Give the backbone structure.
Amino acid sequence: MSDRRVRLVVPLVVVTGVAAAATGAHFGHQAALETSVSAAPAPGGALAPAPGEEAPPAPATDTLGLVSIEYRLNRLPQSASNQIAIWIEDADGGYVRTLFATSFTANGGYTRRPMSLPLWRETARWESAPEAEVESASRPAQDSGRHTVHWDGTDREGRAVPAGAYTYRVEGNLRWENRVLFTGSITVGGEPDSSRAEAEYLPASAAAESDLVEEVTAVFAPGEPMDPADVTTYTRGS
Amino acid sequence: MRAFRDRVMGTDVLLAGMGAGEQAAVLGWLREAERVFTRFSPGSDTRRVGAADGRATEVSASFTAALAEACAHHERTGGLFDPFLGAAMERIGYSVGFDEITARGGVSPGPVAPVPPESPGDDAGAVPRVEIDHERGLVTLPPGTAVDLGGFVKGWSVQQAADALRRAGARRGLIDAGGDIVAWRDPADAPWRVGVEHPLRPEPAGTLALAPYAAVATSSTARRRWRDASGAPAHHIVDPRTGRPADSDCVQATVLGRDLGAAEVYATCLVVLGTVEGPALLADLDGSAAWITVDREGRVRSAANLDHYCAEVALDVPP
C-alpha cells in the first residue's frame, strides 16, 4: 500500500434512516402500466393468475420508436401559475395519452382551482383517468430550465399506436385563467421526424403575461436495428 | 426491438434490447439524475450542498442515496476514491461542462494553481464530519467541501435503472452511458458483445461476449483531456493524494463486476494506483471483480477471472 494513501483523510460519515428507492417516480409507472396491461384478459380468454400466484413479466410492448418532447420552463414567482400538462392526440383529435401533468392539478387540485389546465382535463377526461395513467403522468412541479419528456408510442392503456401523424400539446397556466397552449405535429413510423410547436395564448391578452414555457420541439427516432452477433457498443473512458 | 441513442449526463447513452416504454423510463431517470448531480448548474443538489458552508441542505432522495454509497466506497478504498474532489476539479480547470471545454478548442476557462491534498474539512488533527439524513432529506458537509460524484454517479444511476427494469421483469437489456455498461439477458439468448477500446490505438483492445449479467466500467486518462490556461495538459481523473491529475503507468482500466457504481470506483482506483498496485488493491477490496488494464506503452493485461463475466474473451494481450 502506498505511503501517500495513508495520509488521506476519510471523514466520519453519520447516516440517519434508510435510503429510499431513488428511481420510483420513473419506473413505478412503467410497472403500473405493465400491471394494468397484464391484468387485462389475455386474447383467447386466458385466465389471470390466481391470488398468490406470481404473474409472468409482461413482455415489453413493441412500438414504433420514441418521441422526445423538449421545452424550456421558466417558473413564475406568482400564485395560480406553474401548472403544465403535456399530452398526445391522434390526427382526428382523439386523446391518446398524458405524458406529464403537474401533480397539484393531476391529483385533484382542479376542484379548488377550476381554471387549472381546463383543456387538458377536458380532452383527457382526467376525472375518470385510469389509476395507472394518473400515476405515470403526475409529477412534482419542475425547476426552471430545459426539460425533456418521452412518449413511447403507447396509449393510456399501454397499447402500441399505429404509424401516422400525432399532435403533441403543452398547456400551461400563466396566472389564474390566463394560459398558453403549444401545439405541434409529429409523424411516427419508419423514418425520423422533428417539429416545433406553435404557441397560442388563451385568451389572446394572456400574451402580455410572462413566458412559462418556451421553445417546444419534438423529435421522433425509430431506433436502430441491432444484430446480436455484432459488437453492440464499446467500453471506454468517458 | 430497436436501440435508441441520446446524450445525457454529458455523455452518449445507448439503450438496447428493451421496449420504447423502458427506454423512456431510463431516459427520464437519467435526465433527473443529471439535474440533481451536475456540478455545472447552480440549482443542482451538488452545487447547493457545496455552497451551504456547513449548513444542512435539503436534497433529493437520490442525492442522499448516492452520496451515502459514495462515502462507503471512500472509506473502503482508504480515500483513494474520493467523492469530495469538487474544488480540486475546479482548480485544475474542469469548471464547466466538457462539451463547453470542447467548444473552446480543448482549453479550460478556469485558472490553475498548485493544489494541496484535499479531503472534507482538512483541518489538522480534526476528523471532519459528514451527515446524511435519508429520512429528512438533509446533507451537511464541513465548510469549504464540494462534492463531485462524477463518473461514480453515472455508473450508480445506470445501475439503479437496470435494477428497476430487472425487478419489473425485463429479461434482456443493455444500458451504456459513455462506455459504462450494464447488460443482462436470458441464459439461452445470444450474448451481448462489447468491445474494449484501446486508448492509444485505433484498433480495439479486444472483444467480450458477456455472461448473462455483467456490469462493465472503464476509466481512462485519454478521455476528457484539456489544456489549462497555461497550456499544460490535464485530465479528469484526480489523484486525491496530490489533488492533481493521476500520473500512474495505467492509461486505461476496465473493471467487470456485479455493480456498475462499484466497478466505476475500482476502475478509477486502478488508474490512480497503476498496473501493479491497482490490481493488488482490487484483490483486497473485491476479489470477485475482474479487470483489464492498458499501460503507457499500450500493453494490455487482464485478470484471470474474466470468464466469471464473459462467455468468450478475445483480448490483444501480449504472450
Observations:
- Chain B has two domains: 4-32+170-315, 37-150.
- The first strand of chain B starts at residue 4 and ends at 8.
- The radius of gyration of chain B is 19 Å.
